[in-house]
Amino acid sequence: MSVPLSEALKFWAKLGFISFGGPAGQIAVLHQELVEKRRWISERRFLHALNYCMLLPGPEAQQLVTYIGWLMHRTWGGVLAGTLFVLPSLIILIGLSWVYMTFGQVPWIAAIFFGIKPAVTAIVLHAAVRIGKRTIHNQVLRWIAFGSFLAIFILNLAFPIIVLCAALIGIWGGKRYPEYFQQTPSHGNGKDKHYGTALIDDHTPTPDHAKFSSKRLMQQSSVFIALWLIPFLALALLFGWKTLYPQIAWFFTKAAFLTFGGAYAVLPYVYQGAVDQFHWLSAGQMIDGLALGETTPGPLIMVVAFVGYLAGHIQNLIGNTNPFWFGVLGACVATWFTFLPSFFLVLVGGPLIESTHGKLSFTAPLTAISAAVVGVIANLGLFFAYHVFFPHGLGGSISWISIAISLFAGLALFKFQKGVLSVLTGSALAGLLSYLVASLLT
Fold first, then answer.
1. 24 lies in a domain?
2. Angle (deg, nearest 10), helices 360-389 and 43-55
3. SS3 of 311, please?
């Protein structure tokens, strides 16, 4: 007995609207729904799929949805599942980005973002600690994390260079000192729970479409290249090679292949490119975008839609054109070229790469990269803290209210294990309250 595609699509569509809480929360919801309640897939097969997706660059929750959809209903099942997981978030973020650009300077809305920014700083630092606990389990990996922190903090090295150096260390270290580069289990306690017979059970044979085929690999790779090349060339021909939209397409394609470690891992790279290199938006706007990404369903990496929207909107503010539609195009271009490689890696690379799963020669570089990512994320958190706590630079005044909000947000995250959504809500209310009090006193 199998699940009809129509029933599966209803669930994937529902999931796109309820998947709050970042990757950890989304994976927990998936486990509860698919393993415990619906019994579409067994615990062991679910964890096997999850571990595979965590080895890939890109958002692991979206890739896991795509993987399970592909396993159940072939290529189209995976494509539709992954798309429905992302689409609600894209639509919501486009709407919120328009509100942000149109009404962001309204005092009470600005006050809400004033309260959210310190919380985002605490959230990023909390993510660095959480990812560090999951990936750093010996002194060598701690040194790699510290080295990557210094490389970006002091030398301002580009994120791809740090990833490459970490990978080379992992390749070398995996051969010379393999005991330091073993991956440790990050899910479960080593004992598989059993919730009853599943449709895709522990011993269910791998379906034919999930087995490696060189012919299928060539066909699907050709489709992927066409889906990347045709839109890219169309943007270049319509707007010019060196204009905004081809730049967005190329930049986010590179970002998609560098996101080892999830969405927080790619944020430093997106920040370096969007803020420092291309000047599409400011540091403050980037922090606001991350806050919006945290408060909407879907993968956190959807912050790329906010970046794309602002880039298109801001560049077309002058003149008689409507900047909204240029912003929408920017958001769609950023989303398309960010997620297309994810679909490629699961649907095309899945059968090929799965055969290497668990082999140290393959996992050692990823272990080193994951450690380096922790240092980079810690640097991003400190950078956000600088911009939030010293809004006018080191020579200006200190925002003591921001420091207080950040400390309370950190306490809620670290001590009381509160969810991101509740922390952001409380911080937004604190920002609004500080505005009201300041208004009454003046």
1. no
2. 70
3. helix
